[in-house]
Predict the structure.
Amino acid sequence: MAEHLIELRNITKSFGSVYALGGVTMHVDPGEVVGLIGDNGAGKSTLIKILAGVIKPTAGEIVVQGQVVSNWNPARSRAAGIETVYQDRALAVQQSIVRNVFMGRELAGPLGWLKTRQELEGAERLMREIGFTSRVFSPRSIVGQLSGGERQGVAIARAILKDANLIVLDEPTTALSVVETAKVFHFVRQVREAGRSVIFIGHNIHHVYDIAERFVVIDRGKVVMEKPKTEVASAQVLIEFMEGVARAQHAEMETMA
Amino acid sequence: MADTAKALDGKSSDQHPHDRRWRRLIVANRAMLGSLGVFALMLLLFFVANPRVFSTWNLYISVMTTLPVALFMVTPLVFVVTAGEIDLSFPAIFGFASLAFAAVVQAGFDPFLGIAAAIVVGTGLGLGTGALVVYGGLSSLVATLGMNFMLRGAILILTQSKSIAMPQLADSWAFKVFSSKVFGVPAQMFWALLFVVFCALLYNRHRFGAQVHIVGDNPDSANEMGINVKFVRVKVFGFIGLGAALAGVSSTMINFTWWPTSGDGYLLPVIASVFVGGTPTWGGIGTVGGGAIGALIVSFIQTGVVGAGWSGFYVQFFYGMIIILSLIGHRWNQARYR
């Protein structure tokens, strides 16, 4: 692989005197699923918000396909093909799937009249791409009637609408049942098969272990581990590593006190 | 996994049960169909009470004379409620816009020019009210109530509470086009129906309607996806301003007279029509067709109660009963998704 799809180089972010990120370097290659792990307050949210261009880093470089991009902002993030699916599942639940997929990006003629047929076909195509096919639901179905996993499917379909290269999923399986989680995994695998990349963020390390091919663990604003799945024997190894991190953090707090 | 997906995909999308055309249309329009049911039931009740009166055409003509005025305001109000707002200022905007119309006509200009003036004034006042609510971060319920009082007060101050008579309207082209009788039916009824159809298309098949739905459903999400939430909200207030102007002109042309209080009587019936029609109060969804039927129900009650031979004292009681019954019906008819 010549160059990474997206690369973060030595990203730091401080809010006043508090360092949220102290020099994070990580990358994502085309067609891979990266599992981003970290406890609450580790800096995961800050990191993905920087990637989305919502927060400006204090220092560091963002590199898209080998090119350093200056003045990184939400528009440039989008232009680089990065789409973030936030934790709160930002869907309008009383509307249809097709209206959610095309939210804010409606296909319309010059006078604003919707190209309904094209939108339905587009939604159908995107849902097919992520394996979100059902005899019970169609693009016209109301999102409120869908299960949690299926709603994530709508959010993912919306994210790939504009040919996203990298989809960032922020805790997509939190509060989902086993079956619903399996659905989300299915969508993620389909996205990867289509050659797109995914950053999968999760609290549940078993979930992250199952879906990701490479793990990045961050703790207190720093990358403390980065390994491909082939070098991590089981989810248990990751969990023990995380426990070690937590113990170190605890011990440090004790000495400070 | 991919194979299963492809296998499922091999079957045509016609097999989605939710995509069966008739079933889908019924489900999508159930609120409107429910309102139609209420209207049919009410009509039946009146008919049984007094078959002779309700078989005459005149009674329906009289309803169709005033119904258009309400329709011009009810359908835009469906947009406002869907966007998660409410407007109580439209009666005063109705008065102000029709004052502009009357002033232009009285000054000797063509009524068509007066109509243009009314549209500009009504839409402008609506947009202004909307901007006040949205950019001032005010509650639309309270702020538009305030605007209603303030604008009505301004009308009274400006005109010293004098009415304007315009008998010359009867000979104008505008009257022939907008207010004469076509095949015995008041012409304004056709214009109002045209407006309702336009509104229904705007609501369901236009980017504006789509964004109104989303803004009322989940404004945070709409914002994240790049919809200008504030501007969409301002536009719905502009739209009801336009509707109030059309209603004001229509009403003035029926009466050949502008009154300083014109529009006042429409506040509660128009709001009731929206909810009787099946648009819920919480925003995000609604029905333009249902709102039109709601207006028909509300307009019919007064004529109906008197026509049925009951005392006029029953009118208010009947109003209340229909509002409550339709609300219960709609609650049972549609679930709220969260």
Notes: The mean pLDDT of chain A is 89. Residues 60 and 214 of chain A are 23 Å apart (CA to CA). Chain A touches chain B at residues 86, 90-95, 99, 102-106, 108, 112-114, 116, 124, 128, 131, 133-138, 140-145, 186, 189-190, 193 (CB under 8 Å). Chain A has eight helices and ten strands.
